[in-house]
Amino acid sequence: MSTKVPESTGYGPNSQMSLFGYIVALLIALVLLPLWPAFALGWLIWRAFFAEEEEHRFEQWRRDREPRQPPSGS
Fold first, then answer.
1. Do residues 5 and 16 touch, judged by C-beta distance below 8 A?
2. 3: in domain
3. Is the pLDDT of residue 41 over 60?
4. Which residues contact 20 (CB under 8 A, 6 or more apart)?
5. DSSP structure class, residue 47
6. Which residues span the domain enclosing 41?
7. Cα angle value 42/51/55 (rounded, 5°)
8. What is the overall mean pLDDT for the chain?
9. Could you list the residue ranges that cross the membrane (predicted)?
């Protein structure tokens, strides 16, 4: 006998599907856990040798995109 996950009615959360999603996310995190040191090492190497310049902040990007002179009101 198999248990089916009920179809969402759209009126509220589907707790069975939420639980299934959390379990899958936990399993993926556990599988990828041994790879974190490799990711960290790769990121450090990339930052040391391949990063061209510091990352720009959003405010700096926005300021650089603004026009230098206000538009004329004709």
1. yes
2. no
3. yes
4. 5
5. H
6. 35-65
7. 115
8. 80
9. 20-46
Q: Which amino acid is at 14?
A: N
Question: Does residue 10 lie in a domain region?
Answer: no
Going 31 to 36 to 39 to 43, the CA torsion angle's sign is: positive
Amino acid at site 9: T
Residue type, position 51, single letter? A
SS3 51: coil
Residue 52 lies in a domain: yes
Model-wide pTM > 0.85: no
Residue 71: half-sphere exposure toward Cβ, Cα within 13 Å: 3
Nearest CA among 13, 19, 16 for reference residue 5 = 16
Q: What is the DSSP track for 20-49?
A: HHHHHHHHHHHHHGGGHHHHHHHHHHHHHH
Cβ-proximal residues to 8 (8 Å cutoff; 6+ apart), any chain: 14, 17
- pLDDT score of 36 more than 60: yes
pLDDT on residue 57? 73
